[in-house]
Request: fold
Amino acid sequence: MDQHTSVAASSSAQVAASQQILAALAGLCTAGPLGALASLAAIRGLHGKWSTWFLLGVPAAITINGLYVGLFFGFVAIVRQAAPQPQAGRSLPPAEPQPTPTVAPSARTTAPEPRFYEAGTAVGGQSVRLDLASITQAAEADRFEFVYFLGAERIAATADCTAGTWITRPDLISHRPQSAATENMLKRVCQVRAGRAVEPSAVVTAFVFDPPSNIRAAPNGAILCSVSTKQSITVWQREGDWIQTNYCGSIGYIHVDQIRF
Reply:
């Protein structure tokens, strides 16, 4: 009898131990370490009464898991709050301007064709200006139509480059140069070939080495201004011993003996 009772008690103890292990695993899987401890305590106190443990354990597991979730998100919020935040309204410092690369000026650049050619002063004292944009080929060979200004008066004309004269319109009066200015004007008009004016060559920097050097309105013409110091000036188209320059602010001529390249 005692042996039977001992075997039954041993079996009951084994069952209780297995139930305790299952309860601990169930609590660990459902509610973590605290759930495992709660399951062990419950199974020991209830002596294997699973229904009662189930009714108590499930709500307890949900509550404990909710507590874990709350603690987790609370920890994350604390970490984020402790992290440095960008200040509102603060902008990044402006980027430092990069230096613009300097390009060494070329010794030779293209000179634009000036609109007006300052030919000089007529015998009557008026300035003579030729509108270079107005020069066009006429119907007859070696004749060109152009516009020039005698002082403030605008005059349309046709140049006869073979005869060395020009005819003003609409009065159709023929004129011959009576001054260096009108001679320069007619010469400039007759530089036109194939319906276009001869464009100046590339600009060249020349050095005035022995000032003062005069800049004249035309070769051997009136003085426009003088270069008073040693310096470089821009020059282009050559006419005999004279070279064009815009040093005085308008087209002028300097003698080749006054400059070096």
Q: What stands out?
A: The chain has three domains: 11-70, 113-199, 200-261. The longest helix spans residues 2-46.
